[in-house]
Amino acid sequence: MATDLSGEIIRKSQERPTNLTVWQWGLTLGQATGTTINLATKSIKRMSRPSDDGISFYEYIAYQGMRDYQSQLGPVGIQNLVRSTAKTCKQFAKRHGLPFSTINLPDGTVAHRLGALNCRRSVVFFHGGGYMAPALGQHINFAFGFNPSAHSDLAVYVLQYSLVTETANPYPCQLQQAAALLNHLLRTESISPLSTILLGDSAGGHLLLGLALHLRNPHPQVPPVKVDGRFAGAALISPWTTLYDEPEHSSSDYTALDILEPSALNRWAKSFLAGAPPDPWNAPLTADASWWQDLPIDNILVIYGRDEYLANDGKQIAETLQAHHEKDCESEKVYRAWLDSIPKDI
């Protein structure tokens, strides 16, 4: 179990730290209903005034709806309205005929395995959602390269990290849980780093970057992780790296082309950091160049969209890795093809 700098034991919380009361449920459903009505009004205006922004009506509804709900609902409301990571993983496994099991560690860390115990290849997945939302089915689908049935020899481990609210589960809670899971997989389940990919999306990409730096330069409040050899690779999908400042963006039209609401992203970052000062694990772009040169990871893939709000975050971390990591950082390969390239006979 992790301790803080004074030796105090750090207790891990459940994924959703707060359950709504009946009164709070009423308020939350009222907010959600109001947001839905407002979205319907915007949709009618969109239909009557065609736009040349390049997105379809369906995309407009999806993107605008995500942004509206992010701006109107707080983390606790979203966490109670959205299906939990556990239920999402279990339903995904059932739908695709995959073995499913839950890993419960002594310190409270929880993860879910989709795939058989002794698969030849593994993906350790850290999902996105601003550190405040559970994993979605689309996240799990991506971890399997969009085709779960084609990877019968692959096991995906999904960390069910504790979700952030304004008062619960701040940094470095999630990094502690990520390190605990990795230690369990390497020591207890004896997975081979050489046949394992570490995958992080958005906030999960931020978590993965902190974990990668932790492997050789341990965070003082997080148990060290001993890696014998090197991981086959790491994939960072639209990584969120600038939590202390508003991300720079390369396109003035990102608001119409992305699902992220900047004001909500800033609130989530403040809740996650909870006043913690910048350090290399929560602000990876501030890490010394030498920290990137010694990562026990072979290939690193960075993917981001040209017009997305976090495009510059992805660009900056890709440039950092290309400059300092001993292997070139690939930023244009397709994840599924790269996943298929991992040796199956390890």
UniProtKB/TrEMBL annotation:
GO terms for molecular function: hydrolase activity. Keywords: Hydrolase. Pfam families: Abhydrolase_3. Residues 123-332 form the Alpha/beta hydrolase fold-3 domain. The keyword Hydrolase applies. It comes from the Eukaryota. InterPro entries: AB_hydrolase_3 (IPR013094), AB_hydrolase_fold (IPR029058), GDXG_lipolytic_enzyme (IPR050300). The keyword Cell division does not apply. This is Alpha/beta hydrolase fold-3 domain-containing protein. It comes from [Torrubiella] hemipterigena.
